[in-house]
Structures are given as structure tokens and as C-alpha cells.
Amino acid sequence: MPQNWLEKWTLPSGEKGLSGTELWEAKPDDSKAVATKRRSDLVQTFGNLTLVTQALNSTVSNSAWITKRPALMSASLLPINQQLHEHVTWDEEAIQKRGKDLLNKALKLWLGPSL
Predict the structure, then answer these.
(1) What are the Cα distances from residue 110, in Å, to 46, 101, 105, 115?
(2) Is residue 15 classed as helix, strand or coil in its secondary structure?
């Protein structure tokens, strides 16, 4: 999910997320504000990050998933990116699942110190 997701990525409800000003003015229990904050928090998490070339990133940076997914699949042979083909949608649930999957893989590969 791009850092600037507001323009092309609707919230799970299908609504557009709130801008910074709208968030500031929203009531704490406003459902759009809660969903916007949740998504914005997930953007910089492990499950949403990957490795791509600068050229690819510039080409697809804020594009919708329907555009971004095939570009990632065709331009990157990295297993970390190829695993993204299974995700028809890229949303909060997919990001959280991928984050947990990557953490579990990392814990298996890099065992902590023996005590």
C-alpha cells in the first residue's frame, strides 16, 4: 500500500479516507477516522514493505493494486515479491497476514542466541 494511498485506495467500506485536516477535526469515534488511522499506521509496517528497484517504484508508486500487482510479478523475481501473487486484494488484512508470515519465517531462519 503506498504512503499516499488516499487518492486511489479506498477504505474497506469503499469510502475515501480522511485527509490530515479532516482527521484532526474528526471525532475520535468517527468510523472513517478510525479506518484512516488504522490504514495509515499499517503502511509503514513490515507486512507492507518490500524490495523493488527505483525504476519500478517510480512507475507504480501510488497506483492501485490492480496495476501494481502485475508490475511487481513481472519485474521482480525475488521470492518476497513473488509471494504477493496470492493476494487478489491488498488491504489491512493482507498486510497483517503478510507481516505475521514474514515474522514467522524470520524466526525460523534466524534463531536467537542460545541461553
Answers:
(1) 16, 14, 9, 15
(2) coil
C-alpha cell at 41: 499506521
**Interatomic CA distance for residues 104 and 112, integer angstroms:** 13
Query: CB-based contacts of 23: which residues, under 8 Å, 6+ apart?
Result: 33, 36, 37
pTM of the model: 0.84
The residue whose grid cell reads 475520535 is 28
Amino acid letter for position 31? S
Question: Structural domain boundaries of the chain?
Answer: 20-109
pLDDT by position in tens, the chain (length 115): 998 899 889 999 999 999 999 999 999 899 999 999 999 999 999 999 988 889 988 888 888 899 899 998 888 888 888 888 889 999 999 999 999 999 999 999 988 777 6
